[in-house]
Amino acid sequence: xxxxxxxxxxxxxxxxxxxxxxxxxxxxxxxxxxxxxxxxxxxxxxxxxxxxxxxxxxxxxxxxxxxxxxxxxxxxxxxxxxxxxxxxxxxxxxxxxxxxxxxxxxxxxxxxxxxxxxxxxxxxxxxxxxxxxxxxxxxxxxxxxxxxxxxxxxxxxxxxxxxxxxxxxxxxxxxxxxxxxxxxxxxxxxxxxxxxx
Length: 197
Known about the structure:
- About 30% of the residues are buried.
- Helix 4 packs across helix 5.
- The chain has one domain (about 5-195).
- The protein is of the alpha+beta class.
- Strands 5-6-7-2-8-9 form a six-stranded antiparallel sheet, with helices on both faces. A three-stranded mixed sheet has the order 1-3-4, with no helix packed on it.
- The chain has helices spanning about 20-40, 55-60, 65-75, 130-150, 165-195; strands spanning about 5, 15-20, 85-90, 90-95, 100-105, 105-115, 120-125, 150-155, 160.
- Helix content is about 40%, strand content about 25%.
- The longest helix is centred in the last third of the chain and has 29 residues, at about 165-195.
């Protein structure tokens, strides 16, 4: 049995949304960035308040994406997980109306649905830096994006692109992975200089 856990804070932070919502998504990205700039912590680490993103699930539900069709499109690229859990800290609960597909816990795509089996949200956990994972993520997102005309939005890294634009998507994902790696190297170097290691 393959199982996966996602922290509740990670839900919909990397999201697939209808291309028709691009104007609203760009507006929301700007609002979020402005809010972040206005609420940076005085020491430069973190923020003094939290921004709650707009809920775009009604727009995605309007596309009437069936959970079975979604699974058929994504599964050739990302293997399905048998069980999905969410929670926070040490608390975990099984998600009954959520599916996940992935190469690993750090290269995964999630979807949840309503009682009729219509997808409400699609989000990703793409943090695996190896090229095979990036290509698998790209292929899965492009396949679902081509079928339903979707955008890929990364709210944490402040970018969006057409889900079926494989070149742009993979380039942005590689750049994000390199940015994360650079930040970790800088953090490690700073800690070593302080004598923490």
